[in-house]
Amino acid sequence: MCIICASIPAAAAVGAKLNADQLSQPEEKRKPIGRITGFLIGMLMLASLVYHTLRWQDQ
Predict the structure, then answer these.
(1) So where are the chain's domains?
(2) Element (H, E) at 56
(3) What is the pTM of this model?
(4) 27 DSSP assignment
């Protein structure tokens, strides 16, 4: 598994942990961890798609 593909579940796990840690705070003080995590996972998936497409074409 490449480093980009391996980082997708790691990013999801870290995002879930950070989001769970802030649930005890009031709604106004919470940061948008879920949205940031979703954006990061989307970018990693896009990077993986581009990387694997270009790598497949080289072979």
Answers:
(1) 3-19+33-58
(2) helix 33-58
(3) 0.85
(4) G
Q: Tokens for 56? A: 């497949």
Residue type for position 13: A
Q: Which carries the bigger pLDDT value, residue 55 or residue 14?
A: 14
7: helix, strand or coil: helix
Phi-psi region of 31 (alpha: psi -120 to 50; beta: other; left: phi over 0): beta
Give CA–CA dist 18/34, Å, rounded.
9
- Only one residue has tokens 């694997």, namely 52
**pLDDT per residue over 18-55, tens digit each?**
999 999 999 999 999 999 999 999 999 999 999 999 88
